[in-house]
Specification:
The chain is an alpha/beta fold. It has helices spanning about 10-20, 20-30, 35-50, 55-65, 80-95, 110-120, 135-145, 170-180, 195-210, 230-240, 255-265, 300-315, and strands at about 70-75, 100-105, 125-130, 150, 160-165, 185-190, 220-225, 250, 275-280, 295, 325, 330. The longest helix has 17 residues, at about 300-315.
Length: about 350
């Protein structure tokens, strides 16, 4: 015998059961703060008793606006992005959004698949931390669908999008100036992908600091690599094999710097004594590694919250002018950088 299909409980039935208007019940399922706690509890109890399930997809179609947004980052293992995500979640949850997360591991093909999946699920907008090889066409594809997008961390030339990042050039100059003032002249720049805008901006700051100090760039001390611990280990091994190795290293990120420290220990050298090491990002671990890492703070949580706020504004007003928010970096000095004295 075929079972009779049970009809779906409507919001109107919930409202009647709770003795409130449908408009009041609607405000409660949308988490409006403008409802008394007593009324909220009464309506929620009616929902439980009747077995009401909020049809979010239908609501999105009616309002032509999705309460789900996507964020795509390059590496979940990098605590810089963990901090950025905290900033995103805190800002968006206050506005009632649900956040979908995707990780690319700096792969262009993974990024394309994640974007396709999120667009298929009709996300209301996307915060994208682009992979190194991201093309303008990728962004154009999203914008043609009228999906709001905000770029974070890495800017794309001619993308014409809202963007939040840090002044990477000034941050790199701060870091290298710090090492020069400590007496270092042979300063390596290690890690990161040279094709990315964030690497190019850091390299510009690195070169500017050296130029102002009358030091020529030695290209043998500039080694790009994956922006990972393994990449840092490989990069420092390459410069240590030279006849005249550097006395200090400015690293693309803290994650690279942690790898550089491991690489130094692998060959019997002590970071902070045999080679000064400076990172970029000032992730929480920078303060607890041995030795504590001198780093340039890039304010990951602030980038996340600013990107989230820009996305919310873009969702509310798709035609508004694009904004570009650039945070000023700050050097945090710790024990990994030391005064250089010739032996």
């Amino acid at each position: 015998m075929q079972r009779k299909k049970r009809s779906r409980v409507t919001l109107q039935q919930v409202a009647e059961h709770a003795g409130v208007s449908r408009a009041t019940a609607s405000l409660i399922v949308r988490d409006s703060p403008n409802i008394s706690e007593k009324t909220r509890k009464k309506v929620l109890e009616s929902m439980r008793e009747l077995g009401y399930v909020y049809d979010r997809v239908a609501a999105n179609l009616r309002s032509q606006r999705s309460s789900t947004v996507g964020i795509i980052i390059t590496d979940i293992a990098n605590t810089f992005f963990s901090e950025l995500l905290i900033g995103v979640h805190h800002a968006l949850e206050k506005e009632g959004y649900t956040v979908l997360l995707g990780t690319t591991f700096d792969s262009d093909s993974k990024q394309d698949r994640l974007l396709s999946t999120m667009l298929e699920h009709r996300v209301g907008g996307v915060i994208l931390c682009p992979v190194s090889a991201t093309s303008k066409e990728t962004i154009d594809r999203i914008k043609k669908l009228d999906i709001p997008i905000v770029l974070a961390v890495r800017e794309l030339a001619e993308a014409n999008c809202d963007y939040v990042g840090v002044n990477y050039r000034d941050g790199a100059e701060l870091a290298v100036n710090h090492l020069i003032l400590k007496g270092h002249r042979r300063i390596a720049f290690l890690g990161g992908r040279s094709e990315s805008s964030t690497w190019k901006e850091r390299f510009e700051g690195y070169g500017l600091a050296l130029h102002k100090a009358g030091i020529e760039i030695d290209t043998s001390l500039v080694v790009d690599s994956a922006p990972t611990r393994d990449g840092g280990m490989e990069a420092v091994q390459q410069v240590l094999s030279q006849p005249n190795p550097p006395t200090a290293a400015f690293c693309f990120s803290d994650l690279v710097a942690f790898g550089v420290m491991l690489g130094l220990r692998d060959v019997g050298l002590t970071p902070g004594q045999d080679m000064a090491v400076v990172g970029f990002d000032n992730v929480p671990e920078a303060d607890v590694v041995n030795p504590p890492l001198t780093s340039v703070s890039s304010f990951a949580r602030q980038i996340g919250s600013n990107a989230a706020n820009l996305l919310h504004q873009r969702i509310l007003d798709f035609e508004r002018e694009h904004q570009r928010i650039i945070l000023n970096p700050e050097l945090i000095e710790r024990d990994s950088s030391f005064v250089f004295r010739k032996k």
